[in-house]
Amino acid sequence: MDETEIYEYARQLLETHGGRAVAVAAQQASNFEQENDQEQAQIWRRIEAALKLLRGPTQG
User: Which end of the chain is least crowded, N or C, by CB within 10 Å?
Assistant: First the structure.
């Protein structure tokens, strides 16, 4: 998944889940890590990071 797709997915997640979007992404990453699916976990960590950037510095 390239960066454009990551940010597009992050925007959609933010629209759908609002303030809980980062937590949703983190939970998905954690689930994949527990299943030892590092590729999917990495994608979700990238989405989580993109969400944090989209929310801005004052919101953590």
Answer: C
pTM, entire model? 0.90
9's tokens: 């997915």
CA dihedral of residues 3, 12, 43, 24 (deg, nearest 10)? 150
Identify which has the larger pLDDT, 5 or 56. Answer: 5
Is there a contact between 56 and 19 (Cβ–Cβ < 8 Å)? Answer: no
Residues 6+ apart with CB under 8 A from 55: 14, 22
pLDDT band at 23 (very low <50, low <70, confident <90, very high): very high
**Residue 56 carries which DSSP code?**
-
